[in-house]
Amino acid sequence: MIHSPCVAKCGLNDDDICMGCYRTIDEIVGWSAGDDVFKTQVWEKLAQRKTELSRGEFSESNSISISISRQKWLEAEARIALNER
Protein backbone atom coordinates (compact mmCIF):
# COMPACT_ATOMS: atom_id res chain seq x y z
CA MET A 1 0.00 0.00 0.00
CA ILE A 2 1.34 3.41 -0.96
CA HIS A 3 0.59 6.11 1.59
CA SER A 4 -0.85 9.48 0.69
CA PRO A 5 1.46 12.50 0.50
CA CYS A 6 -1.16 14.57 2.35
CA VAL A 7 0.32 16.57 5.22
CA ALA A 8 -3.03 18.05 6.35
CA LYS A 9 -2.01 21.59 5.40
CA CYS A 10 -4.35 21.95 2.46
CA GLY A 11 -4.62 25.05 0.36
CA LEU A 12 -4.84 25.30 -3.41
CA ASN A 13 -2.94 27.94 -5.31
CA ASP A 14 -4.28 29.52 -8.50
CA ASP A 15 -3.06 26.51 -10.51
CA ASP A 16 -5.12 24.14 -8.30
CA ILE A 17 -2.00 22.67 -6.71
CA CYS A 18 -2.06 22.02 -2.99
CA MET A 19 0.68 23.99 -1.29
CA GLY A 20 0.88 21.36 1.47
CA CYS A 21 1.47 18.16 -0.52
CA TYR A 22 2.05 19.61 -4.03
CA ARG A 23 -0.57 17.42 -5.69
CA THR A 24 -2.99 18.77 -8.27
CA ILE A 25 -6.68 18.72 -7.44
CA ASP A 26 -7.14 15.82 -9.88
CA GLU A 27 -4.42 13.85 -8.10
CA ILE A 28 -6.02 14.54 -4.73
CA VAL A 29 -9.52 13.56 -5.85
CA GLY A 30 -8.26 10.48 -7.70
CA TRP A 31 -5.94 9.23 -4.94
CA SER A 32 -8.28 6.83 -3.15
CA ALA A 33 -9.35 5.11 -6.37
CA GLY A 34 -5.88 5.20 -7.93
CA ASP A 35 -3.79 2.08 -8.39
CA ASP A 36 -0.15 1.75 -7.30
CA VAL A 37 1.09 2.89 -10.71
CA PHE A 38 -0.92 6.11 -10.46
CA LYS A 39 0.22 6.73 -6.88
CA THR A 40 3.87 6.08 -7.72
CA GLN A 41 3.66 8.49 -10.65
CA VAL A 42 2.18 11.16 -8.39
CA TRP A 43 4.93 10.68 -5.79
CA GLU A 44 7.57 10.96 -8.53
CA LYS A 45 6.23 14.38 -9.59
CA LEU A 46 6.05 15.99 -6.15
CA ALA A 47 9.69 16.97 -5.54
CA GLN A 48 9.99 18.56 -8.99
CA ARG A 49 6.67 20.36 -8.58
CA LYS A 50 7.74 21.70 -5.17
CA THR A 51 10.97 23.03 -6.70
CA GLU A 52 9.10 24.63 -9.59
CA LEU A 53 6.62 26.27 -7.24
CA SER A 54 9.39 27.66 -5.05
CA ARG A 55 10.90 29.25 -8.18
CA GLY A 56 7.54 30.67 -9.24
CA GLU A 57 7.32 28.57 -12.39
CA PHE A 58 3.55 28.21 -12.24
CA SER A 59 0.99 31.02 -12.34
CA GLU A 60 1.89 34.61 -11.63
CA SER A 61 -0.19 34.56 -8.48
CA ASN A 62 0.67 32.25 -5.63
CA SER A 63 -2.41 33.11 -3.61
CA ILE A 64 -3.86 30.16 -1.79
CA SER A 65 -7.48 29.14 -1.34
CA ILE A 66 -7.76 27.89 2.20
CA SER A 67 -10.31 25.26 1.27
CA ILE A 68 -11.13 23.39 -1.92
CA SER A 69 -14.38 24.75 -3.26
CA ARG A 70 -17.16 22.24 -3.81
CA GLN A 71 -17.38 23.24 -7.47
CA LYS A 72 -13.69 22.56 -8.14
CA TRP A 73 -13.97 19.21 -6.39
CA LEU A 74 -16.97 18.20 -8.52
CA GLU A 75 -15.19 19.31 -11.70
CA ALA A 76 -12.16 17.17 -10.80
CA GLU A 77 -14.37 14.17 -10.06
CA ALA A 78 -16.06 14.57 -13.45
CA ARG A 79 -12.70 14.75 -15.29
CA ILE A 80 -11.50 11.61 -13.53
CA ALA A 81 -14.73 9.74 -14.26
CA LEU A 82 -14.37 10.59 -17.98
CA ASN A 83 -10.79 9.32 -18.03
CA GLU A 84 -11.81 6.03 -16.41
CA ARG A 85 -14.22 5.19 -19.24
Question: Which ranges are low-confidence, i.e. pLDDT below 50, for 5 or more consecutive residues?
Answer: none
| Share in helix | 40-55%
Strand content: under 5%
Q: Tell me the structural class.
A: mainly alpha
Number of strands: 0
Order of SSEs: HHH
Biggest sheet layout? none
The value of Rg in angstroms is 13 Å
**Outline, from the CA principal axes?**
globular
* Average pLDDT, all residues: 85
End-to-end span in angstroms? 24 Å
Number of helices: 3
Secondary structure layout plus pairing:
Layout: H1 25-30, H2 36-54, H3 70-84
Could you describe the 3D structure shown?
This protein is an all-alpha fold and 85 residues long. Helix content is 47%, strand content 0%. It contains 3 helices and no strands. It has helices spanning 25-30, 36-54, 70-84. The chain is globular, with a radius of gyration of 13 Å. It starts with 24 loop residues before the first helix and ends with a helix. The mean pLDDT is 85.
Brief summary:
The protein is mostly helical and about 80 residues long. Helices cover about 45% and strands about 0% of the residues. It is globular, with a radius of gyration of 13 Å.
Features:
85 residues, mainly alpha, 3 helices, globular
